[in-house]
Amino acid sequence: MSELTTTRAACLARDDQDPLAPLRQRFDLPAGVIYLDGNSLGARPRAALQRAQEVVAREWGQDLIKSWNTAGWFDLPKRLGARLAPLVGAGADEVVVTDSTSLNLFKALAAAVRIQAQGETANRRVIVTERSNFPTDIYMAEGLTSWLERGYSVRLVDSSEELPAAIDADCAVVMLTHVNYRTGHQHDMAALTRHAHQNGALVVWDLAHSAGAVPVDLNGAEADFAVGCTYKYLNGGPGAPAFIWVPRRHQARFAHPLSGWWGHAQPFAMAHGFAPADGIGRALCGTPPVVSLAMVECGLEVFEETTMDAIRAKSLQLTDLFIELVESRCAAHPLGLVTPREHARRGSQVSFTHPHGYAVMQALIARGVIGDYREPEIMRFGFTPLYTSFADVWDAVEILKDILDREDYDVGAERGAVT
Length: 419
Ligand SMILES: *Cc1c(COP(=O)(O)O)cnc(C)c1O
Prior knowledge:
- The protein is α/β, with parallel strands linked by helices.
- 36% of the residues lie in helices and 13% in strands.
- A 7-stranded mixed beta sheet has the order 4-10-9-8-7-5-6, sandwiched between helices. The chain has a 4-stranded antiparallel beta sheet with strand order 11-12-15-14, with helices on one face. A two-stranded antiparallel sheet has the order 1-3.
- Helix 1 packs antiparallel against helix 13, helix 2 packs antiparallel against helix 10 (290-303) and helix 11 packs parallel to helix 13 (390-405).
- The longest helix is centred in the last third of the chain and has 22 residues, at 308-329.
- The two termini are 33 Å apart.
- The relative contact order is 0.17.
- The structure holds pyridoxal-5'-phosphate.
């Protein structure tokens, strides 16, 4: 490591030069908080408060049920999907915002398994994923395979190096999270998709930690299906609905068991028997949560002021700076970098282990530096270029250093239900 030349003044100078700096004004963050948890719950766009008032007071309160037509409620899942699409390299008619990531994953997996069950791939019965994947992804895949029975199962791979070999003649579907929630490791989407296709498998990508965080090109990679969150880097609000991507080439044969009336070709015909909508509409299930969906639009609007390339460039600068400062300023302490140093393999977060990671994170939060903790021993720091400054990074590391130097944390701290 070269000698530290960075100073707080140098960080402030970088903020002055930062083309994304003005976008911080689009968010309402409490004074005295350095928010490094936008990878778990994004900050609130300023516009969300007024939009919520409009939707609740006028559209719901005054216009009541007429708003399904007059305020565009009916089209919201598709309209938001079209607005989100460019962030992940998707076509405007290939994405809807609906349901949760868990549910969308179930739909995508079920559709992929069904496609594979036809023709010469019919004997493939394995869904391959990583043991380190986010638990709900694995739970949903296991839920699906145990309901299907007939020999379907989930194969868990222990490291990404073992992935290519695990995609064998039994593998029907590969389900991968593009950026790992714990380590921040980023997969090579194009290369893994190509490998899976060469070996006869379809690929479902989870973009929970990618959408709005790193550039994604689903169509460029010729991926098969994708899902992702809007409440993380896309700043859609707590519990905001997720998205699902079905490329045009798979839409006609995209079928899933959650055949609710919103996925019907004519929901208000109230017909007997399910007939799926043409196109992406068939990925919908039931009535969407309109108030929550409206908030998603406020998050997406901010992205239209910049590009994912500009966001990525700043994200790498922020994470490089954080790693450099932690490793130099806190060198006396037992911190271990978990996140890859190599840019191509890094998402927009940095994780460090510490033997008292949970207690140290609680102390950081008490001092206004909000990150989070994931078992085992991992302190997670998410970097969101839309509202995080270089001076924030400097200040966060100084507070971390102070806490560690003075051992100012409580190892017996009680854990909340959400860590
Ligand atoms: C955050 C996250 C989820 C969340 O799923 P929900 O259904 O919204 O609870 C799923 N998968 C991954 C990889 C995540 O990071």
